[in-house]
Amino acid sequence: MGPTIEHAAKSKLLSFSDVFTVLAGEDEKPFLLHGSVICNHSSFFRAACNREFKENAERIIRLPEVEPDAFSMYAQWAYSGEIVVVNGAQTPDETNSEVHCDSLAELYLVGDVLGDTLLRNTVVDRIRKNCSRLKRGPSNTCVNLAYSSTPENSALRRLVVDWHAREVASDWLKSSQNMLPLEFYKDLAIAWAEARLSLNQIADWKNAGQCNYHDHDEEVSACDPLQNDKPSLLPPSTLVPVVEVLSSPQFRLRSPRDRSV
């Protein structure tokens, strides 16, 4: 894998003169953090510390768009290098897999807001691992979060589309038509259409190379090629008949404003 960012437990002694407060969520839950730790992970915090603290004697950063539970998981990650889910068991089973996936998706969004590439990659790896072990896909909430809060072609979007393109049955499409974003259905239809019309094949989300669902930048380089083998593929002949499903009278794509999740 590419280089990892050093966490507090492995780094030098903490500086207790660089602490600042993050107020998370609309209720502004406070988190007291060390700049030497948090800025090591987040491009957002590095910029904020360099810019705002020169003009802000209070040393406070407000993140109203980040839920406190999700930020608590982020702080745990920054200090320990471990993902600790706030809501639900750390190792999900069939009874709590959706709640666990929802929490991981929320954490991915925090990594997106704060510019933490390594965290996003680690979260996607965890979601893939859980989907493979439990033989369950990303939750509907995970899909909705990916499409409401991440940019086009984000790693999380690619993963949820690839999983559904390979694993989902047509009856699921019909039953879930009012629960997921229109843009998701468009991406899913495009994935199927490309595989059928151009004789391409759909990547296997489970066995795909590690880098397939990773982001890389100047801090997080590409993964080891030995861990990024060409993914196994799903033959077009096995694809769900998406055209038949989307054209059926029971199926009507709805815009986000019409949808109730």
UniProtKB/TrEMBL annotation:
<dbReference type="InterPro" id="IPR000210">
    <property type="entry name" value="BTB/POZ_dom"/>
</dbReference>
<protein>
    <recommendedName>
        <fullName>BTB domain-containing protein</fullName>
    </recommendedName>
</protein>
<feature type="domain" description="BTB">
    <location>
        <begin position="17"/>
        <end position="87"/>
    </location>
</feature>
<dbReference type="Pfam" id="PF00651">
    <property type="entry name" value="BTB"/>
</dbReference>
<dbReference type="InterPro" id="IPR011333">
    <property type="entry name" value="SKP1/BTB/POZ_sf"/>
</dbReference>
